[in-house]
Amino acid sequence: xxxxxxxxxxxxxxxxxxxxxxxxxxxxxxxxxxxxxxxxxxxxxxxxxxxxxxxxxxxxxxxxxxxxxxxxxxxxxxxxxxxxxxxxxxxxxxxxxxxxxxxxxxxxxxxxxxxxxxxxxxxxxxxxxxxxxxxxxxx
Length: 139
Description:
By secondary structure, the protein is of the alpha+beta class. It contains four helices and five strands, in the order ααααβββββ. The chain has a single domain (31-135), classed as Nuclear Transport Factor 2, Chain: A. 22% of the residues lie in helices and 24% in strands.
């Protein structure tokens, strides 16, 4: 029911707004595009640095770099929309150095020389329904 009763904490105006936006026929497609999936995989990498297993799953099997903690020293940004061709995406990435990862705590200490901005190219490959990083070189 959309009427507010004495025990409900939901105001009638909010209930009516929800009813008008949620239950009005039609469906919204929340499927991400290939570009969005590729971007999410790359931009989420810095969140996985503190967890070796999660970090490894972001990469194609066997492609996870040994220097996982080094990725926590950079802000990773996508420069432009990924170029997706079939199951491979090429992505221009900007790496801003001099960052100390909160995921790694005191383990990561960036030096003054690391305060740089580097542009590089990473590749991401579709494996089944997922996009995984194939190559992510650091400076």
